[in-house]
Amino acid sequence: MRKFAIILPMLLLLAAQVAMAQAAEDRARFAAEQWIVLVDDGQYNQSWKEADKIFQDLIPADEWQKKASAERAQLGARQSRKLKDIKATNAVKGLPNGQYYQVKYQSSYENKKQAVETIVATLDSDGTWRVVSYTVN
């Protein structure tokens, strides 16, 4: 019985840590999914406003609008998007060390049938997950 009294709190702590990690992953994925809908809809200015400050500091709003518009014109209409992978990381090339989730989608566009979209989300100081990076390969 004494052994159980020692193991139970450790198991409960482990379960709580797993639940917190899952909740963070879910919120990061939700932020990525909400943000990419803005890009899909051509709401580039709004997507810039809702991105993390790091994103905003890396690319001014007008440049983001031009870049995103040009990239989407080349890709053509989105045909499909399916979650491929999501992983937590503390290091993303070109970004300061921090708490990130890389959300990858297998996507298809009118002019690019096989594409991988990578959206990186970070936990902002206000406790909100926001997009900090987006690429299509």
* Spatial separation of the terminal alpha carbons: 56 Å
> Radius of gyration from the CA trace?
18 Å
Percent in strands = 25-35%
What is the SS-derived class? Answer: alpha+beta
* Average pLDDT, all residues: 89
Largest sheet: 4 strands, antiparallel
The H/E string reads HHHHEEEE
State the CATH superfamily name.
NTF2-like, domain 1
The overall number of domains is: 1
CATH-defined architecture: Roll
User: In which order are the strands of the major sheet placed?
Assistant: 1-2-3-4
Task: Name some characteristics of this structure.
single chain, 137 residues, alpha+beta, Nuclear Transport Factor 2, Chain: A, four-stranded antiparallel sheet, 31% strand
Describe the protein's architecture and organization.
By secondary structure, this protein is an alpha+beta fold. It has one domain: Nuclear Transport Factor 2, Chain: A (Roll). Helix content is 49%, strand content 31%. A four-stranded antiparallel beta sheet has the order 1-2-3-4. A hairpin with a 2-residue loop joins strand 2 and strand 3. The longest helix has 39 residues. It is globular. The protein starts with a helix and ends with a strand. The model has no long low-confidence stretch (mean pLDDT 89).
Structure summary:
With 137 residues, the chain is α+β, with helices and mostly antiparallel strands. Helices cover 49% and strands 31% of the residues. It has helices at 2-40, 44-50, 53-58, 61-75, and strands at 78-89, 100-109, 112-123, 129-136.
